[in-house]
Amino acid sequence: MIGITIVFIGITSYELSFLIRHKRKPRTYWITGSFIAAAYLYQAAIHMYQDLPSTNQFIEYIFNFQ
User: Fold this and answer.
1) Which keywords accompany this UniProt record (predicted)?
2) Model confidence pLDDT, tens digit, residues 44-66
3) Distance CA 25, CA 64 (A)
């Protein structure tokens, strides 16, 4: 869990520096932050509850849905 958090802190700092450097709108900050938060929460849930489908299985389920 510590490793996941460290990776997401790195991703967040990179994205934030990119947004600041390119002077993006506040809406872009919210969208980017929301996606990062959702991804972090999903990864944390997968780590804590081993019965949940992994990210790869979830993507396969979406595209194989009939």
Assistant:
1) Membrane, Transmembrane, Transmembrane helix
2) 888 888 877 777 887 888 888 76
3) 36
Residues 10, 13, 19, 23: is their CA dihedral positive or negative? negative
Model pTM above 0.70: yes
For residue 20, what are its two tokens? 């600041």
Q: What is the dihedral of CA 43, 37, 28, 57, to 10 degrees?
A: 20
Rounded to 5, what percent of the chain is helix, strand, coil?
A: 80, 0, 20
From residue 35, give the alpha-carbon distance in Å to each of 16, 39, 41. Answer: 13, 6, 10
Sequence spans of domains, the chain: 2-63
